[in-house]
C-alpha cells in the first residue's frame, strides 16, 4: 500500500504538465487557485488557455451570471510539484472581456505600457512584512496563549529559541520563491516577535507586482502545510507593538542617472500633493498602523527625510551622497495590492501633471 507522501512524489511523463492557475478573490486580498493538466511544457503565458471559475463562490459575480474568465499573465516554476509543472498568475474578466472590479492588474498594465512610463524603466523593491499566527487561537506564533512575550527590542533580526519563531517556515518560503523564479532578494525577522519580512526586487514595472502575488501564494501554501495562519493585517496586535507594512522602494531611469536626486525631489513633491489619494489606496486598516509611532509617519500628514524611518518617504544616505538612486515610500500597508500601489506611484511621479 502506497503512502500519501509516496503518491504525492510520483513522477509523471514529461509531456504531462500540471498548471496551478492563481487569482485574487473577492476581498481583494484572498488568493484562490485550481489546477489543470496541459499536454506539454509552456513558458509563455500567451500560449496558455484561458479558463473560467464560479465567481458567485468568490464574491465576484452573481449566481445567475457566475462565470468569470481567467487570463494567464505570468508563469513561475511550481516548487510544490516541481518538474515542468507551473504556477500561473492570472487576472479575471467577464465573458465579454471586461476586467471585473477586483481585477486591479488590467489598469496597472495600462499605466505601465504607456510610452513615458516604459521608457523610464521603473524599478520596484517591495518589502513584505507579515505575521505568523497560531492556527486555533489566531495569536502570534511563539506567544503564550492570551499573554505577551517580553517587550520589543531583542527580536528584530534576532536569533535563538526565545526570539525567533517560525524560521523554518521563513527559510522554506525563501528557497521555494527562488526556485519559482521570483526575484526575492532577502528575508529578516521583524521588530514584533512572530513577524517576518521578505523583499521582492528590484523588479521592473508590473513584474514586481506579479512576483509579490506569487510569493504571497507560495507563503500561504507553506503556512498551510505547517498548520500556521498567515496574517497581512497592518496592526495585528494593538498596543506597543510594531505594525506590518509593505514599504515600496522605487526609482526611474532618470533617478538612477547623474542629477537624479533632483528628479527624486520633484517626484516626492508630487507624491505629497496627492498624499490623501495614495493613503486611500494603500491598504485597508492602515490608519491603525500609521500613527506616528513605531517607525511610521502619521497618516494625516506628509513628510520626507534622509534616513528618517518616521517619515512618509525615506531617502537613503547613499542616494543623498551619490546624488542619484531611489527612495522608499513607507506608507503602504502589508495588505496593500501591489498592482494598485506600484502603478499609482508610477502614474503620480511620471504621468500626473499638477495644475498650475
From TrEMBL:
Domain GS beta-grasp intervals: 17-97
Top-level taxonomic group: Eukaryota
InterPro entries: Gln_synt_N, Gln_synt_N_sf, Gln_synth/guanido_kin_cat_dom, Gln_synth_cat_dom, Gln_synth_gly_rich_site, Gln_synth_N_conserv_site, Glutamine_Synthetase
Coarse class of the protein's main subcellular location: cytoplasm
EC numbers, comma separated: 6.3.1.2
Ranges of residues in domain GS catalytic: 104-356
Reaction equations catalysed: L-glutamate + NH4(+) + ATP = L-glutamine + ADP + phosphate + H(+)
Location(s) in or outside the cell: Cytoplasm
Keywords: ATP-binding, Cytoplasm, Ligase, Nucleotide-binding
Pfam families associated with the record: Gln-synt_C, Gln-synt_N
Coiled-coil ranges (or none): none
Entries under PANTHER family matching the protein: GLUTAMINE SYNTHETASE, GLUTAMINE SYNTHETASE CYTOSOLIC ISOZYME 1-1
Record-stated family: Belongs to the glutamine synthetase family.
Annotated protein name in UniProt: Glutamine synthetase
The organism of origin for this protein: Sphagnum jensenii
Native organism taxonomy: Eukaryota, Viridiplantae, Streptophyta, Embryophyta, Bryophyta
Amino acid at each position: 500500500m502506497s503512502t500519501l507522501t509516496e503518491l504525492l512524489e510520483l513522477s509523471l511523463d514529461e509531456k504531462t504538465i500540471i498548471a496551478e492557475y492563481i487569482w485574487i478573490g473577492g476581498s481583494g486580498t484572498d488568493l484562490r487557485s485550481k489546477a489543470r493538466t496541459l499536454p506539454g511544457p509552456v513558458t509563455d503565458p500567451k500560449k496558455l488557455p484561458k479558463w473560467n471559475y464560479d465567481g458567485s463562490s468568490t464574491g465576484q459575480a452573481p449566481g445567475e451570471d457566475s462565470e468569470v474568465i481567467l487570463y494567464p499573465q505570468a508563469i513561475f516554476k511550481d516548487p510544490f510539484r516541481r518538474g515542468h509543472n507551473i504556477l500561473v498568475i492570472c487576472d479575471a474578466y467577464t465573458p465579454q472581456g471586461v476586467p471585473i472590479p477586483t481585477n486591479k492588474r488590467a489598469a496597472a498594465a495600462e499605466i505601465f505600457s504607456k510610452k513615458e512610463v516604459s521608457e523610464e524603466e521603473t524599478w520596484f523593491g517591495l518589502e513584505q512584512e507579515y505575521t505568523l499566527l497560531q492556527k486555533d487561537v489566531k495569536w502570534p506564533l511563539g506567544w503564550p496563549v492570551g499573554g505577551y512575550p517580553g517587550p520589543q527590542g531583542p527580536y528584530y533580526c534576532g536569533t535563538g529559541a526565545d526570539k525567533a519563531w517560525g524560521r523554518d517556515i521563513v527559510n522554506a518560503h525563501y528557497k521555494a520563491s527562488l526556485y519559482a523564479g521570483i526575484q526575492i532578494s532577502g528575508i529578516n525577522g521583524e521588530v514584533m516577535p512572530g513577524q517576518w519580512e521578505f523583499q521582492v526586487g528590484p523588479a521592473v514595472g508590473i513584474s514586481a507586482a506579479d512576483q509579490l502575488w506569487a510569493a504571497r501564494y507560495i507563503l500561504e501554501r507553506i503556512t498551510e502545510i505547517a498548520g500556521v495562519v498567515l496574517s497581512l493585517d497592518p496592526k495585528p496586535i494593538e498596543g506597543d507593538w510594531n505594525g506590518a507594512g509593505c514599504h515600496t522602494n522605487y526609482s526611474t531611469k532618470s533617478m538612477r542617472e547623474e542629477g537624479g536626486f533632483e528628479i527624486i525631489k520633484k517626484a516626492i513633491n508630487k507624491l505629497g500633493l496627492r498624499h490623501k489619494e495614495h493613503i486611500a489606496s494603500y491598504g485597508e486598516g492602515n490608519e491603525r498602523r500609521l500613527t506616528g509611532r513605531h517607525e511610521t509617519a502619521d497618516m494625516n500628514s506628509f513628510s520626507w527625510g534622509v534616513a528618517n524611518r518616521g517619515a512618509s518617504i525615506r531617502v537613503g544616505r547613499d542616494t543623498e551622497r551619490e546624488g542619484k538612486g531611489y527612495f522608499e515610500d513607507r506608507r503602504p500597508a502589508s495588505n496593500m495590492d501591489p498592482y494598485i500601489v506600484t502603478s499609482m506611484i508610477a502614474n503620480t511621479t511620471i504621468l500626473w501633471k499638477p495644475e498650475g
